[in-house]
Amino acid sequence: MEELKTGLITKATGGFYYVACGGREYECRARGLFRKTGISPLVGDAVKIEVTGEKEGYVVEILPRKNSLVRPPLANVNTFVIVVSIKDPAPNLLVIDKMMAIACHKGMTPMVIVTKTDLGDPSEVEEIYRKVGIEVHTASICSDGWVETVRNALSHGISAFSGNSGVGKSSLLNKIDSRLAIATGETSQKLGRGKHTTRHVQLYPIGDGYIADTPGFSAVELERYEIIFKEELEDCFPEFKKYLGKCQFTGCSHTVEKGCAVIQGVNQGEIPPSRHKSYCTMYEDAKKIKEWEVRKGQPDE
Ligand SMILES: Nc1nc2c(ncn2[C@@H]2O[C@H](COP(=O)(O)OP(=O)(O)OP(=O)(O)O)[C@@H](O)[C@H]2O)c(=O)[nH]1
Ligand SMILES: [Zn+2]
Fold it and tell me: Looking at the Swiss-Prot or TrEMBL record, what is one Pfam family this protein matches (predicted)?
């Protein structure tokens, strides 16, 4: 039997998986065994391949995944970058908190990049998320001082970008690496803005890491496919951690209860009120979720 190599799937189209491995790219098909297990390889997967030619091979094994997203189909995301502009459009804290909760739920490290800082003061948003322990960066197309810092922050593992339309994702990526913006721009043009078409995720190298090109990937889509049950929600707010287990009542929902340690944390100014407000909104929404609905709603992979 041929020697197996370990690589990373950076692209998947038309039944082929493109695997980066030791400075080379192999065009691979998947062995039939995946059909039996029901798990298909995803971009971001670390895989074992059987090399059959100079640039060809077969994916024979998927190494254990750290996490995965349904739409965009992507595995092993380390950093989940939430891009938010200070103006046009103005930041929506609930949307940021929803995205952040999903990232935490999936075991991804959230990062916030506040863009368009030439149009407004980002300090309020910065302060909320720094307090929560999240890495925050600021950026603007009118300056370059931030570029190196952000590039370094993204130069390990796989990073995925999310943010509503118009917040400046393409502009940001263009500053970080012009190859990225070309790719993103082309995809947006081909798809037409706002259209729901099958999209191909692709990984682009940056330093020792990769940035996932995920056109049109927004909070709406994220929320639709990644569901958090109400019991799990408290663990998706990292700043709640030190208060958990200290509430007066077991099974406290941390929304209105007397003797709630989380609410006390808010009152003492340790948890930003906007974060708790988002939590309560998400908790109310989560109460309406029934498990059977989730199963019914999940698309086939
Ligand atoms: N003033 C200012 N405008 C910006 C900045 N960054 C982006 N813009 C403008 O904001 C608009 C949207 O920027 P894009 O980079 O296309 O935003 P996007 O998030 O990629 O948008 P979608 O492709 O719809 O997802 C463009 O008109 C940009 O020129 C910035 O730092 N300052
Ligand atoms: Zn509580």
Answer: RsgA_N
* CATH number for the domain formed by residue range(s) 229-289: 1.10.40.50
Pick the CATH number of 4-64 from 2.60.120.10, 3.20.20.120, 2.40.50.140, 3.40.50.1970: 2.40.50.140
Averaged in consecutive runs of 10 residues, what is the pLDDT profile of the chain (301 residues)? 87 94 94 77 96 94 93 93 96 95 96 98 97 97 96 96 89 86 51 50 92 77 86 97 97 97 98 98 90 57 39
Per-residue CA distances from 76 to 12, 46, 177, 290 (Å): 15, 8, 22, 28
Strand partners, 204: 211
pTM listed for this prediction: 0.90
Residues of the chain with CATH 1.10.40.50: 229-289
Calculate the alpha carbon distances from 16 to 24, 26, 32, 114 in Å: 16, 10, 13, 37
Mutational pocket test of ligand 1: of 87, 161, 171, 178, the residue with most ligand atoms within 8 Å of the beta carbon = 171
Ligand 1 nearest-atom number relative to CA 83: 19
177 in a known ligand binding site: no
Ligand 1 center from residue 89 Cα (angstroms):
10
Which residues form the pocket of ligand 1, taking CB atoms under 6 Å from any ligand atom? Answer: 115-116, 118-119, 140-141, 163, 165-171, 188, 193
